């Protein structure tokens, strides 16, 4: 039972003659500290002692590499069994791939240039006669049929019939001149007035923008507005096309119904109050002059002091 182990820095064999296991580590010798495998004719197991005493040791299972190998073998067997059990079975395709309906899938195949063609339906078009300089101070009441009724009679608003299915329809491929001709047909009284203050306006033909009169040779007497709740902002477009009108179409209720969609415009030069009074019926005349900002809030503050 001679120990054949050696220590660091000493090439001679250990002089230990008897393997005596440690109580804490049964595979180590208590005398020299070498493993029991370094002792010739040593007990093959730390449990086999001459005195017959059993030293408690930790059970030694398979190492990490063996566990990984065994688990991979089990996984391979499982996958092979699963493949054999699913042989001849073909799962059905999903009923709605990627959450798209049939209409959306068909629309995605349509070229983008074709999506900008065709008709668009809205519920109302309104002209404000206050002038573009006063639009930031202008406050219009709630947009509904009752509030717009006097404006419709005055020729400053057009609204779709609530009982009819057809709204105000225009084509998205129209240019600036074609949409101008469309507005002229809807607002004859207003455009008769604009022809008197804008010479040459009535000479614009109902034609595409790429033929006839060029945009640089004419100016529109009105501007497109973007509605943000009860406030209105000027759109930076001197010659808006139908696609521009569609982009800035307001949606009052946030729904997809055409009756809640509207286009708002402003006359660049304010229409005189006398002219407006002749358009509005006496009973429907606006309480506050349209070309002037309201001062009701300031009066209330002064009265409160």
Layout of SSEs?
Layout: H1 64-85, H2 102-109, H3 112-115, E1 119-122, E2 124-128, H4 145-154, E3 157-159, E4 168-171, H5 176-186, H6 188-197, E5 222-228, E6 231-234, H7 242-247, E7 250-251, E8 261-267, H8 273-279, H9 296-304
Parallel strand pairs: 2-8
Antiparallel strand pairs: 1-4, 2-3, 5-6, 5-8, 7-8
Folded structure, characterized:
The protein is of the alpha+beta class and 305 residues long. It has 2 domains: 1-51, no CATH class; 116-294, no CATH class. Helices cover 29% and strands 12% of the residues. The protein has 9 helices and 8 strands. The protein has helices at residues 64-85, 102-109, 112-115, 145-154, 176-186, 188-197, 242-247, 273-279, 296-304, and strands at 119-122, 124-128, 157-159, 168-171, 222-228, 231-234, 250-251, 261-267. Strands 2, 3, 5, 6, 7 and 8 form a 6-stranded mixed β-sheet that branches. A hairpin with a 2-residue loop joins β5 (222-228) and β6 (231-234). The longest helix has 22 residues, at 64-85. It starts with 63 loop residues before the first helix and ends with a helix. The model is unreliable at 42-49, 55-60 and 291-305 (pLDDT under 50).
The helix/strand order is HHHEEHEEHHEEHEEHH
Q: Using only CA atoms, what is the Rg?
A: 46 Å
Low-confidence stretches: 42-49, 55-60, 291-305
How many domain regions?
A: 2
Find the structural class using helix and strand composition: alpha+beta
Tell how many strands the DSSP assignment holds: 8
Instruction: Output the number of helix runs.
Output: 9
| Span between termini | 114 Å
Shape: rod-shaped
Please, what is the average pLDDT?
Answer: 74
Sheet having the most strands? 6 strands, mixed
Q: What is the helix content?
A: 25-40%
The fraction of residues assigned to DSSP E strands is 5-15%
């Amino acid at each position: 039972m001679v120990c054949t182990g050696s220590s660091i820095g000493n090439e001679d064999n250990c002089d230990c003659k008897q393997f005596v296991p440690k109580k804490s580590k049964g595979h180590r010798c208590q005398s020299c500290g070498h493993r029991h495998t370094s002792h010739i004719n040593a007990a093959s197991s730390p449990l086999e002692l001459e005195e017959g005493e059993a030293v408690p040791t930790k059970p030694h299972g398979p190492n990490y590499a063996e566990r990984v190998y065994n688990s991979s073998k089990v996984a391979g067997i499982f996958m092979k069994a699963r493949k054999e059990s699913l042989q001849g079975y073909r799962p059905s395709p999903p009923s709605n791939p990627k959450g798209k309906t049939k209409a959306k899938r068909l629309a995605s195949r349509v070229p983008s240039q074709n999506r900008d063609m065709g008709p668009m339906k809205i519920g109302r078009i309104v002209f404000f006669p206050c002038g573009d300089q006063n639009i930031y101070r202008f406050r219009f009441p709630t947009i509904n049929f009752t509030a717009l009724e006097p404006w419709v009679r005055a020729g400053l608003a057009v609204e779709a019939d609530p009982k009819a299915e057809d709204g105000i329809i225009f084509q998205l491929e129209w240019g600036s001149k074609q949409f101008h001709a469309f507005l002229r047909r809807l607002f004859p009284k207003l455009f008769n007035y604009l022809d008197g203050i804008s010479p040459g306006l009535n000479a614009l033909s109902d034609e595409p923008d790429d033929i006839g009169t060029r945009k640089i040779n004419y100016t529109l007497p009105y501007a497109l507005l973007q509605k943000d709740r009860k406030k209105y902002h000027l759109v930076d477009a001197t010659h808006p096309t139908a696609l521009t009108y569609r982009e800035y179409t307001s949606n009052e209720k946030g729904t997809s119904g055409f009756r809640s969609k509207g286009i708002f415009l402003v006359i660049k030069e304010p229409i005189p109050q006398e002219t407006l009074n002749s358009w509005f019926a006496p009973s429907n005349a606006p309480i506050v002059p349209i070309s002037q900002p309201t001062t009701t809030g300031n009066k209330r503050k002064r009265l409160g002091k």
